[in-house]
Amino acid sequence: MMARLPRFFQQSAALYVLFLLPTLLLALYAGQSDALISRQMTGVWQASFWHFPGLSATVSRVLLDILDALAVGGLGILFFQGWRTLLQTSHEERPALTRLIFMGVAVCAVILLAVVPFHSSDLYGYLNRGFQQSVYGTNPYLTPVVKIPGWQQEPLFHPHWVYNPCPYGFFFAQLTAWLTGWFGRSFVAAFLGFKTLNLILFLGTTALILKLSRQLRLPRPELAAYAFGANPLVLLHVMANGHNDIGMVFLLLAAIWTVSLPRWRWAVLPLLTLSVLMKYASLLSLPFVGLYLLKSAKGRRDWLSLLLGGLLSVALLLLLAAPYVDPHQAWPWADMLDNAGKPQHSLVDLLARAVYYPIKWVHGPATDGMDWTLRALKPLFWGGFVLFYLRQVWQFARQKADLTVLVAAIAIPLTVMVACISSKFHPWYTVMFLPLLLLLPENNRWRHFGLTFSLFQLAGFTIFQNLPVISPLALTVLPLWLAYRRRSPVQG
Question: Would you say 453 and 447 are in contact if contact means Cβ atoms under 8 Å apart?
Answer without folding.
Answer: no
